[in-house]
Amino acid sequence: MTEMPPMLQWPSAKLMGAEFVSFDHDALTAEMAFTPPAEFANMRGHVQGGLLAGPMDEAMGAAVFLATQGKLQLTLDINLSLLRPVAQGRITVKARAVKAGRRVSFVEAELFDTEGKLCARATGTVMTTEWPNMKQGPDA
C-alpha cells in the first residue's frame, strides 16, 4: 500500500486542508501537507499551538495506516513540543511509524512551516484497530 485512499478525507482532514504527499515504505514515513483555516489563528495571527496537534495526529495516523496495511489508529497519547510560532499558510508534517505493532504502535512527527523551518515535534502512542463494521479495510 503506497497511497491513501481518497475516502480518507473525512471531515477533520478536510477542515485542516489535508493533502497526502507521499509515503516511504522502507522508512515507514508519511508526508502530508495542511492549510489550516483562518479560524485556527490566535491573537498574534499565528496558528494556535494546540491546534497544531491535529495535523500532526492526522499525519501520524497516516503513517500507521500505511505501515500496518490499512488499519486505523486510536490515539492513546500525544506529546507535543512547540519550537516556534507557525504563520498561517501551508504547513508540512512528516510522520514516521517508529514501531508498528499488531495492537500498539509508536509514532513521531515533525511539522515545518512554509519556509521549511522546523516548528513542532510530536511523539505518540496509538492502538491499531480494524475499520468500523469491516474486517479487511476500506476496499473490502
User: What name is given to the CATH topology?
Assistant: Thiol Ester Dehydrase, Chain A
User: Termini separation (Å)?
Assistant: 14 Å
CATH structural architecture:
Roll
Q: What is the fourth-level CATH superfamily?
A: Hotdog Thioesterase
Write a brief structural summary.
With 140 residues, the chain is mainly beta. Helices cover 14% and strands 39% of the residues. The chain is globular, with a radius of gyration of 14 Å.
Would you write up a description of this structure?
The chain is mainly beta. The chain contains two helices and six strands, in the order H-E-E-H-E-E-E-E. The chain has helices at 11-15, 53-67; strands at residues 19-24, 29-34, 72-82, 91-100, 104-112, 118-129. The relative contact order is 0.21. The mean pLDDT is 89.
Write the topology of this structure.
Layout: H1 11-15, E1 19-24, E2 29-34, H2 53-67, E3 72-82, E4 91-100, E5 104-112, E6 118-129
Antiparallel strand pairs: 1-2, 2-4, 3-6, 4-5, 5-6
Features:
140 residues; mainly beta; Thiol Ester Dehydrase, Chain A; six-stranded antiparallel beta sheet; globular
